[in-house]
Amino acid sequence: MDNAIRKKILSLLDQHRIMTIATLRPDGWPQATTVGYVNEGLTLYFLCGLDSQKATNLAQDDRVSLTIDHDTSDLMAITGLSMAARAQAVVDRTEAEKVLRMLPLKYPEQVSLPVPMPTPQDVRIFRITPTVISVLDYSKGFGHADLVTDL
């Protein structure tokens, strides 16, 4: 992967905190949900309920599609990421605890939570490993996207 495009991807990941992730329901219909995320390089992590539909879907099929972007009033200022990826449940307690420590760093203005911070036993944590990334940048032309497959 070209260093400039890698820096652009990492910059977009660092600028945002939420993504829309699509999983596949057992009946084949896609299910899109907005979730918070943290990342370590190109690896993303998100949490969900132990018995959530997302967790159920991912137990059957680990393929996901996701988008990360923001709203803008200028059509030609659209930037963002679209990814095809695999999502694996984090089962290593050390990795899970690391992810939970990363979350508050993504929300520094959040002084306190109305509920206690979850523990690894309270939630399902997923690690997302991209296989294809599309980097959207309309400032380079309407609908412009750079496709990155050499991850």
TrEMBL record:
Positions of the Pyridoxamine 5'-phosphate oxidase N-terminal domain: 6-134
Matches recorded under SUPFAM superfamilies: FMN-binding split barrel (SSF50475)
InterPro entries found in the cross-reference section: F420H2_bilvrd_red/Heme_oxyg, HutZ, Pyridox_Oxase_N, Split_barrel_FMN-bd
Alphabetized GO MF terms: coenzyme F420 binding; oxidoreductase activity, acting on the CH-CH group of donors
Record keywords, A-Z: Oxidoreductase
One Pfam family per UniProt: PNPOx_N
PANTHER family: HEME OXYGENASE HI_0854-RELATED
Protein name, as recorded: Pyridoxamine 5'-phosphate oxidase
Organism of this sequence: Sinorhizobium alkalisoli
